[in-house]
Specification:
- The complex is a heterodimer of chains A (about 525) and B (about 280).
- With about 525 residues, chain A is mostly helical.
- Helices cover about 80% and strands about 0% of the residues of chain A.
- In chain A, α4 crosses α12.
- Chain A is globular and about 75 Å long.
- With about 280 residues, chain B is an alpha/beta fold.
- Helix content of chain B is about 35%, strand content about 20%.
- The termini of chain B are close together.
- Classes of the chains: A mainly alpha (about 525), B alpha/beta (about 280).
């Protein structure tokens, strides 16, 4: 049997094993009341076909609209940055900050502005915009400098250089971004639906969760995963086609690498604060102007200074609640990372296990994790453990995927050297594979640290356990705008700080380990 | 062309029985006997890299294998290193299969890609074979090798802080640190500029020859082969086999003056002619 067909068979066996285990354990009642066996979920999908189809259709339409809008905007801004390179550093900082704003704050914001019915589309567009912008910017800079110089010496104009060199150079990276952004659009649309949409898979899942209709909840979750994976596969096919045409010299395909900014030179370059933070300052300014010029009532939205004053006046509240959230996030991060690393190492050690879980590695990037928070809440209960579990899941998946590829990425020729030295599998793991994986693990920490914190926040908001997320929910309900937005500002600061710290550690670590 | 036997004007193995069995009294250092190797391409096609490839090294002998790109010389080396298995024929080191020699830690290799671990220092990289084999690090041995390859003072530097030539020195020190009986070098200086390469050849030529390590060097530089080897085998492909073997008659150490001897020029001419013919055959085949 050829290697390829053996891998395929093992993969299929893995899928069958997973589904079989689910069925058997659920039937035996080991997984509790909230995990029904597949044999009950599949008929439920059939029974609710009309409901699920209309919900999925509504979500898909919003996701698609948001996707097109986000990609279009990202492309425009990407070209603008390319033409005016000075904007670069600032836009990147802004992207980091916007990424750090909890979705629950966006939901309320969109509501305040009065665009509530467009929330899902705006969410989708925003998430797509960030992913695509980074891919586009990375793509424009992927061309080789000599080719660029050759064109310049031919007297090619700025525009000519763009259309005949930078644009084609960017195609592989953009295609990569388009693929990664597809599930993101779906996540955005479903999350947006939590904030007052009347139909859609997101609404269906929340309602099913509250009504304890576990079959319907799982049906909706499975449909969501299937659509997300389908979109990912479709755009993966497009990417393969484009790759064939625009042969890539640099390997850019990779899960979650699109948000790795080309940081070191940029950090070095932009040492002065104004170039780095003009966009962030602009946001605060626009916020203030919106409040003053639009005569927005304090009850609707407070100004930046009011919020700052409130936070300054109640440091204890935010410290305690912030620590609550941070503790859940850090606990989840550590547990999730350990589990992800252990599984990746086990798969590295055992080719059979590796073959069995190969399909999971393919599907994981497409699973909209934040969207399944309602499922987790129903599963674990409305308590602190749901918050921790969400953080565990948010850390586990990227760590597992990045560690898996990291363990296989080794210095050229090192494998042969170890073979000739007669290295045992364990010594190869210890002296070669694990150190090789360190840079990827550091990336995983950066990717998951902030998202664990933000995920914990969303979970707190949804299940109502103490923490910054709950402060926001409660303060909104009691109409204490400064208190509510203070929680968001603190969350953004913590999350940006976490991201930048993790990023600094990653750069140092990469320097040390590769 | 079918004239390999006629072209073999020097046969150092003549007079010794072609047996590679241990205990025969004249067990060779390294022997490849009638080795064939095929590789599977996509869609069921196969490519024959080696066919009837035979080469024999006495204990302590240094043989350079030269040949055009794609002639299969690196494949032959990988077979000796146990990294590939032959489809036909046998590969023996001191009468044993490569796997047995690897188990005993008697094999050292250095490749064109230095294959250093970026997270380890010069010292750590040279000491690595001890750790990989689960043996205590012999500090004196590591220190003497650092000195031997001229890297004293750079023990704490990491590979990316070194020049290409220095990285290859580390790679060679690592290959020697376990005091191997066999040394396999695949274009160890192939990625270096001509000046550095020449300098390293001059400096390091005695490193292996004087230690009595049985050594195979794969290269496509005729000068390098003449400077370093006791004997030179020319390989032609494809499939690859040895078409010419020549002894190198110069005393050691060989300095730059060797290049001015008339024997050097004629040997150089012969080998270059054979290489040109091999290149034409390799392309045609």
């Amino acid at each position: 049997m050829s290697d390829r067909s053996r891998r395929t068979l093992l993969g299929l066996a893995g899928v069958v094993l997973f589904l079989g285990l689910w069925e058997v354990l659920a039937r035996a009642g080991v997984l509790g009341l909230t995990v029904p066996p597949l044999s009950r979920i599949v008929p439920a999908i059939g029974q609710n076909a009309a409901l699920l189809a209309s919900a999925a259709g509504a979500s898909l339409a919003r996701a698609t609209a948001g996707y097109v809008l986000g990609v279009g905007l990202a492309f425009l801004v990407g070209v603008l940055i390319l033409m005016v390179p000075k904007l670069d550093a600032g836009v990147y900082r802004l992207a980091v900050v916007v990424n750090a704003i909890p979705v629950i704050a966006f939901g309320s914001l969109v509501e305040i502005i009065g665009l509530q019915s467009f929330t899902p589309m705006i969410f989708a567009a925003m998430l797509v915009f960030l992913t695509t912008l980074i891919a586009v910017t990375k793509g424009f800079h992927s061309g080789s400098a000599p080719t660029h110089d050759v064109l310049t010496t031919f007297g090619a104009s700025r525009w000519r250089r763009f259309t005949s060199l930078q644009l084609p150079d960017a195609v592989p990276s953009i295609a990569d971004g388009l693929r990664i952004a597809a599930p993101t659009a779906f996540v955005g649309a479903l999350l947006g639906e939590w904030f007052g949409a009347e139909s859609g898979l997101g609404v269906l899942m929340i309602n099913a969760m509250r009504n304890f209709d576990v079959e319907l909840m799982w049906s909706a979750a499975l449909v969501a995963v299937a659509i997300s994976a389908g979109a990912y596969a479709l755009l993966g096919g497009l990417e393969t086609l484009l790759d064939r045409r625009f042969a890539r010299t640099v390997q850019t395909r990779g899960v979650m690498t699109a948000d790795v900014p080309d940081g070191r030179s940029r950090t070095m370059r932009a040492l002065s604060w104004p170039t780095r933070f003009w966009a962030v300052a602009l946001v605060i300014l626009v916020w203030q102007m919106w409040i003053s010029l639009g005569h927005v009532e304090r009850i609707v939205a407070p100004g930046p200074f009011g919020v700052a004053a409130y936070v300054g006046g109640h440091p204890g509240t935010y410290l305690v609640q912030g620590l609550n959230t941070a503790l859940a996030a850090v606990g989840g991060l550590v547990l999730g990372m350990t589990a992800g690393l252990v599984l990746a190492v086990a798969a590295w050690l055992s080719p059979t296990l590796n073959g069995l879980i190969a399909p999971a590695v393919l599907v994981i990037p497409t699973v909209p994790i934040v969207v399944i928070i309602p499922v987790v809440a129903r599963l674990i209960g409305f308590n602190r453990w749901t918050v921790v579990t969400v953080a565990v899941l948010l850390a586990f998946f990227p760590v597992f995927v990045l560690a898996t590829s990291g363990l296989r990425y080794r210095p050229a020729g090192a494998d042969d050297v170890f073979s000739v030295l007669g290295a045992s599998r364990m010594r190869r793991l210890r002296h070669l594979a694990l150190p090789s994986a360190v840079p990827n693990l550091l990336t995983a920490v950066r990717v998951s640290a902030a998202s664990c914190f933000l995920g914990a926040l969303v979970a707190e908001w949804l299940v109502g356990t103490s923490g910054l997320g709950d402060v926001f929910r409660e303060a909104r309900a009691l109409i204490q705008p400064e208190r509510a937005w203070g929680a968001i500002v603190v969350a953004v600061v913590v999350s940006v700080g976490t991201y930048l710290a993790a990023y600094a550690i990653e750069l140092r670590g990469r320097d040390r380990w590769s | 062309m079918g004239e390999s036997a006629a072209a073999r004007d020097v046969d150092p193995a003549a007079g010794t029985p072609p047996s590679g069995e241990p205990g025969a009294g004249t067990a060779p250092g390294i022997e490849l006997a009638g080795v064939s190797k095929r590789f599977q391409l996509s869609r069921g096609e196969t490519i024959e890299a080696l066919s009837g490839f035979s080469l024999r090294l006495e204990v302590g002998e240094f043989v350079a294998v030269i040949g055009p790109s794609g002639c299969g010389k690196s494949t032959a080396l990988r077979l000796v290193a146990g990294l590939e298995q032959p489809d036909e024929g046998a590969v023996r080191l001191a009468g044993e299969p490569p796997a047995a020699i690897i188990d005993e830690g008697r094999l050292g290799v250095a490749f064109q890609e230095h294959a250093l671990l970026p997270w380890l220092s010069v010292w750590g990289n040279i000491a690595l074979p001890f750790k990989v084999r689960g043996r205590p690090v012999d500090e004196d041995q590591v220190r003497s090798l650092v000195e031997l390859v001229g890297l004293t003072g750079f023990e704490k530097a990491r590979p990316k802080q070194l020049s290409g030539g220095m990285r290859q020195r580390v790679s060679i020190a690592r290959a020697l640190v376990l005091r191997p009986d066999f040394l396999l070098l695949d274009e160890p200086f192939g990625s270096l500029d001509a000046v550095t390469r020449r300098q390293l050849n001059l400096e390091l030529q005695d490193l292996w020859a004087l230690r009595g390590i049985t050594t195979v060097l794969v290269t496509h530089s005729v000068e390098e082969a003449i400077l370093l080897a006791d004997r030179i085998a020319v390989v032609s492909g494809r499939p690859g086999r040895v078409v010419l073997e020549r002894d190198v008659p110069f005393d050691r150490p060989r300095g730059r003056d060797v290049e001015h001897l008339p024997e050097f020029r004629s040997l150089m001419d012969d080998l270059t002619t054979a290489l040109d013919r091999a290149a034409a055959m390799t392309r045609g085949g």
